[in-house]
Amino acid sequence: MIKLIVFLPLLAALVAGLGNRMIGNVVAKAITTGALLTSCALSWPIFLAFVAGNASPSVTPLFTWMQSGGLDIAWSLRVDTLTAVMLVVVTSVSSLVHIYSWGYMDEDPDQPRFFAYLSLFTFAMLMLVTANNLVQMFFGWEGVGLASYLLIGFWFKKPSANAAAIKAFVVNRVGDLGFMLGIFGTFLVFGTVSIPDILAAAPGMAGSAITFLGMRLDTMTILTLLLFVGAMGKSAQLGLHTWLPDAMEGPTPVSALIHAATMVTAGVFMVCRLSPMFEAAPVAQGFVIFIGAATCLFAATVATTQTDIKRVIAYSTCSQLGYMFFAAGVGAYGAAMFHLFTHAFFKALLFLGAGSVIHAMHHEQDMRYYGALRKRIPLTFWAMVAGTLAITGVGIPGLAVGFAGFWSKDAILESAWAAGSLGVEGGHLAFLVGAFAALLTSFYSWRLIFLTFFGKARWTQSEHIAHALHDAHGDHHADSDHDNPPSQEDAGHEPAQHGPAAAGLSDGTGGYHPHESPWSMLVPLIVLSIGAVAAGQVFHHVFVDPEGGLAFWNGSIAFDAHLAHASHEVPTWVMFTPFVVMLTGLWIAYNNYIRDPGAPARFTAMFGPLYTFLLNKWYFDELYNVIFVRPAFWFGRLFWQRGDVGIIDRFGPDGAARAVQGGSVLTGRLQSGFLYTYALVMLLGLAGLATWAMVRF
Amino acid sequence: MIESSLPILSLMLAVPFVAALACLFVGDRAARWIALIATLVDLALGAVLWANYDIGGAQWQFVESIALFGTFKWALGIDGIALMLIMLSVFLMPICIGASWVAIKTRVGLYMACFLLMETLMIGVFAAQDLFLFYILFEAGLIPMYLIIGIWGGTNRIYASYKFFLYTLLGSVLMLIAMLWMANAAGTTDIPTLMQYDFPAQAQTWLWLAFFASFAVKMPMWPVHTWLPDAHVQAPTAGSVILAGVLLKMGGYGFLRFSLPMFPDASAQFMWLIFGLSMVAVVYTSLVALVQSDMKKLIAYSSVAHMAIVTAGLFAFNQQGIEGAIMVMLGHGLVSGALFLCVGVIYDRLHTREIARYGGLAINMPRYALFFMLFTMASVGLPGTSNFVGEFLGIMGIYQASSWMAFVATTGIILGAAYMLYLYRRVVFGELVHDDVRAMPDLSIREWALLAPIAAAVLWMGVYPESFLAPIRGDVTALTARLAATAPAGDAHLAIGKPKLTPKGEALHGAATGEGH
Description:
Chain A: InterPro entries: NADHpl_OxRdtase_5_subgr (IPR018393), ND/Mrp_TM (IPR001750), NU5C-like (IPR003945), Proton_antipo_N (IPR001516). Chain A: The chain crosses the membrane at residues 77-102, 114-131, 138-157, 177-201, 213-233, 253-274, 286-305, 325-358, 379-407, 427-446, 522-543, 570-590, 675-695. Chain A: Keywords: Membrane, Transmembrane, Transmembrane helix. The complex is a heterodimer. By secondary structure, chain A is mostly helical. Chain A is built from 28 helices and 6 strands. Chain A folds into 2 domains: 1-457 and 515-618, no CATH class; 662-696. In chain A, helix 7 (219-234) packs antiparallel against helix 10 (266-273), helix 16 (404-421) packs across helix 21 and helix 17 (427-453) runs parallel beside helix 22. Chain A is globular. The N and C termini of chain A lie far apart (69 Å). By secondary structure, chain B is mostly helical. In chain B, 73% of the residues lie in helices and 3% in strands. The interface between A and B is large, with 93 and 111 residues.
């Protein structure tokens, strides 16, 4: 059965990809979507069996992959609790995204290719989560990287999409450098790459040391740090995060599937899968907490200033991944996986909802040109609200009712505090950072909702809408299109204050009529809304409760029942902090974007440098460009022109030629016949030498 | 030893040789067909050879030995390593003939004869069991290549072929002198015997260096690599395919067959020379590849970077390193050959290798884009393709010898992704801006038939490399056993006990900052 789940998407991808135009759009879409729905239907019973506690881990061997000396790597499919969780996340979101794409990609000329890539991605992701050894995990790891590269660059005519695709692949490769070295080191130390064998032996390695790059280091610390660098790349953690916002160049369903719900969580999955290794390396755990908390804060601050709806959600993803990592760092792997699980639903929902808005607004992605969409696309609005309630963690602490994020994010924050109280360094700090980031989360999430759905319509200023109107009504509105930039948060644009009605369009809509998306897009939104509302309430018992969790995880992660217990007994103020900051964030957003729309402009004027710093994403891209990209090209030219041409050739073959020819113009004199002479002389010389040698012996 | 009733190796040498002679005396059309049929026959013979190769049997199989004159013998025989490289040669040859089918219009008979002669010589090099037979075939193999570059090459072909000649000349002279000394000292020219012979350690140093001079150029290793980009750029497509696919593997084969087993002490002694040159090569040539504007030059420089992983893997002195190196040799042979074919496909249409002249090919050549993507991904070592298996095993072996070398080799994988994807983006993605590019038709059936078999082989090697690892396993085990006594201990081995501070007292501090980026 697991074979079907994993290989059906591959088969569908091959049929749709190779068949392409021969089989046509509908067949390609039907095959891929059908395969995914089948995989999904087969996955849920497995997961529910683990929830009910009547399933046991299994490994299905396929065939040998590599064998060399002591190294023995087989293709095999592992199913345990951790895999089962990922199976339902991956196949559910993927099938919903497939369905959604029927509507979203309806006008695209290249649909079979798109669906083939989506299915290929799903296959690679399933290989990743079912891996029983590190190398197969790496296979899936790189496979999802390939699919991500192909899908980010799906609109390959756009230079920005191509640049983003390459950036995603190369930055991920930097992470892979760590992952690969980690695998090599692990094999050197343990003599195997089989995950269960490594995990069994890991605690025994505490207190030993290996040398890496001339430094003598604690074995488990260096191995887990190297592996974690891989996780940082894939999960876009601070330092290697720069590719994720740019990845929004891909079609929105891709962002929902790959860059929110599944692929980017692979790093968290990896840390949880290898949790016994991390448990044996406290220094590395401290590093994980630090990176997780730092990313959580960094991404949340940037998200508050972005104006592209997808970029806001992308930074939000980055930030939420930070939560998962510091949860894993403090040892609350159950909470990390729980947040991964709930986040998959509500973040996919937010992205698909954003896609629905973009669809309605004729591919306009800038929130400054939205507004007042609540009544126009009500279903999308309510779905987005459900997603926002989930991500901001709305719920009532005392009564234990709440949306998905309420359960998982509170579990993380409480675990962090509890771990800090139990003596984990950085636990309390992670709690404080996480709580502050939760305030920012609430602010930027509601800001998105208010800017998009409330207030006055600001559509006329959008070029995309203008084009749509232009197409629809001839050039009737052409003169009012481009001269009216929006009034809110316009650092990059000149702050011309014409007001929404400047061009004589009293309601700011320009006569444009946004339409609610087709049902193929709305059904996934509804399904995901149910997940965003209920996933936490239904599953928190098995994921994070001390007793339920211990039985559910059944050794597939290093579930710490003691910590889980402690996290339920944190002080009341700790328990209520997330609730308070959530309300605070909501209030600030409401105040600034509904009650007093002029407030953001005043604020940015007051804190100009800070605002610019955040708007430019802490200048990471500029920094990397100066440190890595430009020097690489500079050194490349230097080595080529100065090294190869200027030194090696000049003093090597060319120099030799000059010496022989006495400086005469060699190449001018050479005829093609000259070569025969060379060849002949050489052959004769060879024959002579060989003959001499043979006669001599 | 298995005495085959049929002298299949001699037959494999004879078929293309006879066909080469025939090609000289017939018209263009007939020459093409003769060449194609002869290479296909050799491919079939190769398949028979592989099918009958007894894995786990005698080390040397299909042995033939005929004394000619003096001590000179017509001695052929193969082990698993030679078998794999012969398979690579006979597999690529029909593809090369097919690639030249319409591109070569002048002196077709001579051209086909050159290729067929080269096939004879290549198979001979891998099968030779006599020192001097090896030498003659090894050096003579260059002659058809000179001719191919010099006659059918691009505008600057004379310079390229002359550079090619000059580089290889010096190395081969030194190697010949070393061979003469060895034959004299050991009293035999039989390669299997010499592989077990213990030369005095002092002599090994000099002999190793003499062989190194020849193999390093063939590899090519930095800094004697500058002939390769010029040779590739000027050679016709099929010439590039065979140059990258097989001729570059002769250097690696030489290290495997001569340097390592015959001079184990010297090999251990020079390990850091090899590692040092390989480290420079990986970073240096990858960066140079990044700034190339000529497609063939870019792929040529990437070859140098890949070959550096081969040399480092071979000198890791362990099973994974050596098997990985051999897998890189095979995988790179297929992938770089295929990449040159991909360049050839569009060169035949537009007659320029300038990257900037292309763009947007995914629109009008989707099938081409698919193949090119597959080979690009194979070249960057994506798991599931041939090059991943080689690079992964190779660097895993290297790590056990030196974490520094492994670290640098792995950075080459990042840079590899950068320059290959940058190339792909500029050629295949983007808008169609040039009208002549827009008019280019997608792959013809002939071109499809050239690329599809390589694509299949690349995936086969990536998903089930056991087919290729099994034949070489015994030989590599024998080699590592021979090297075991001298293999240097790696720097990374496990030690019980707390990490000790280095004399400078900053080990842990260094780690913290080193991982922070």
